[in-house]
TrEMBL record:
GO terms for molecular function: ATP binding. The keyword Transport applies. Keywords: ATP-binding, Nucleotide-binding, Transport. SUPFAM superfamilies: P-loop containing nucleoside triphosphate hydrolases (SSF52540). This is NitT/TauT family transport system ATP-binding protein.
Amino acid sequence: MDFLSLQGIHHTYFTKNSATTALSDISLEIKEGEFISFLGPSGCGKTTLLSIIAGLVEPTAGTVTLEGTDVNNASKKIGYMLQQDYLFPWKTIEENILIGFKIEGSLDNSKRDYALTLLEKMGLKGVEKQYPKQLSGGMRQRVALVRTLATEPKLLMLDEPFSALDYQTKLKLEDHVSNTLKSLGKTAILVTHDIGEAIAMSDRIFLFSSRPGTIHQTFEMPDEIRDATPFHARNHELYSSIFQTVWKELESLESTDTY
């Protein structure tokens, strides 16, 4: 049994005067511990599919199961990280990373210690009593990741979490996120427009066609890229040829995109 399974996902948005099909016949399986990227032209339904997997949107047709359970009954196993950090500015960093436990009413000393250990693992030791405005954008995104990971989700959803950052910070954060997820054995799905980011971070890349979104092609990264940190993957001799291959496929899709 696959860790995450999507079968025949189809989704149409209906308005009073129109119907727009965002996704058509999406089927895929993801193994536990994999890092997957969704890549494709703008408007191809990547974020819609992420929302369906997270149980936030009900598909028009098809099923999504996580460890054999419908995602609607497995929402506590899924963590979601967005482009914006959405930290509460009036709360300290410690209070922010513990918010999930407080909402659940499950906060205790062991969970606090675990969250603070994650904070240290992300290179943020000593910021517990500071407020979000005192941290850089990259540091706030790391705090947001700690907040997401603290409740120990089985599946992590990453919706362009690095896109608002400058390039140098983005590269550093890619390494932080990749190393942390690998050390914890987490399964992750990344939505991105950045080909290099997808190659450097992923085990597999699903390339989506233009609307309605379908899986146009799947790229499996070689072990040399998968085993390297994202920074070193970008400098590997195989990186350039993989980039060109994915780029050409994406270009061919975008050249036929009428939206």
